[in-house]
Amino acid sequence: MIVPAAAAASKAILCFIHISNMLLLGLTGSIATGKSTVSQILSSSPYNLPIVDADKVARQVVEPGTAGYNQIVAHFGPSTPDLLVAPSPENGGEAGHNGKGRPLNRPALGRRVFGEGKDKDRKALNKIVHPAVRREMYKQMISAYLRGCWAVVLDVPLLFESGWEPLCGTIMVVAVRDAKVQMERLRARDEHLSEEDARNRVASQWDVRDKAERCMRRGEKAGVVVWNDGGKEDLKREVDRVMAVVQRGHPQWWAWLLLFCPPLAAASATWSYVRSWWIKRQWEQEKQREKAKL
């Protein structure tokens, strides 16, 4: 849980970013749909957009020497003997590469917090990691704004599930129309997976075609889908097509108008947030009704 002062500060930062002239472009998808490749395209010319990668941030905030690392070691270390990787010349020995400790043994930590009857441990870990991830993401968003970026990409695999949806001016979902394509790419990437293993991994996630449908419910300016059923060149052309839509929906003159007219910026941000929240609520209610009919 975030303490009240930190929670208030977090909300203030989000409000500041949301009413600024910078677009928060949420990027999401599913396993083996090409989200990472799209992220690389957006970070390269001609777009050169800064990427706030939630997965990378989650690793950064628990590196040796960070507050998150120290809290995890203090909480789980006494009861998890293999919490840290074994010292070796390759990993810097007892002091680690940066002299601040050995890295976390992620498989050991996973065994400790995941599985039946381990809710308490998992909540304790989330209590440490989630606030740290959000704080670091806010810092990177503010940094992008101060550098004058017209947009920043929030690369969040569980964007819809984690509550970021209403905060994004536009959401981009990377999806495939054919589930077989997703399966083939996953098995080509992770050759050790059997067909059943790959099917289970895909099935464990929210169907990306449902994500695409939910995204498009937001309207053309607020929700776009990159269909990635072809090759790399096809994907590049699809990203260019979608980014043209995004840029038309957020013209430079509108960004300058919001910058120099704070009341209009506040009203625009409020409308965007409320509209996103309402669409999200309607979608969830519709899905609940569909389940009730089964």
UniProtKB/TrEMBL annotation:
GO molecular function: ATP binding; dephospho-CoA kinase activity
Signal peptide bounds: 1-32
GO biological process, one term: coenzyme A biosynthetic process
Positions of transmembrane segments: 253-274
Pfam families, A to Z: CoaE (PF01121)
Keywords (A to Z) from UniProt: ATP-binding, Membrane, Nucleotide-binding, Signal, Transmembrane, Transmembrane helix
CDD domains membership: DPCK
Region Disordered: start-end pairs: 88-109
HAMAP family from the UniProt entry: Dephospho_CoA_kinase
Alphabetized NCBIfam families for the sequence: dephospho-CoA kinase (TIGR00152)
Protein's UniProt name: Dephospho-CoA kinase
Species the sequence originates in: Hortaea werneckii
